[in-house]
Amino acid sequence: MSASAKQSVSGFSFGWLIDLVLSGDAPVSSKELSAVLLAARHAGDPDPGHLYLYATDEAGASLDLSTAASELGIRYSTMGDGIGVVRDAIDDALGTGR
After folding, report:
1. pTM value?
2. Residue 97 pLDDT greater than 70, yes or no
3. If 84 and its partner were Cys, which of 64, 79, 92, 95 is the partner (CB 3.0–4.6 Å)?
4. Rounded to the nearest 10 degrees, what angle do helices 30-41 and 87-94 cross at?
């Protein structure tokens, strides 16, 4: 898996827009999503208030993130082909990771 990120601002909230590219066509696993969420949760200063995540295969076809998010028990919103997660939802479902 490779990931790229750019800063995102939504209202008064600073965060990240993260694009994940996976080899193969298997969906993102809950273990992979958890690792990305915790890493992004602590990236930057101040801590991001939100994360927007999108996943594709190497050919550019969208991959499902909602199943992995549901398996983690994390609150998220659907954002087109991706998901949006706020910092509090990450902390509630996964802890702070520190």
Report:
1. 0.86
2. no
3. 79
4. 120
